[in-house]
Amino acid sequence: MAALDTSLSTAHRARQDFVEQGLDAALSRRKPTGRQYRKPDGAQGAWLVALACGPASEGQARWTLKLLAQRMVELEVVDSISPECVCTTLPENKAAPSRRRRDVFRAPA
What is residue 40's predicted lDDT score, i.e. its pLDDT? Predict the structure, then answer.
């Protein structure tokens, strides 16, 4: 561990991979296991941009990421979408009228 400047857990995982799967598994990197969000396709992204740039839902002063995600599901544009996916999709399209706060989108004046 000291020679390679690694942690105890890294050494333990490498040793366990070597015993269970062989040298190649111990030396190669694993794929990330973090959650991967599916990005909307072109038509779904266009719906999202149009929705975010329009007036907010009735009774709401502005769009939130959660409200945008819920509305996309209500309109049956997507089966499901997370607020995180909405957050990453809108700035890519430069459709966020309020660039200072990523969690809230205001309707254009």
Answer: 81
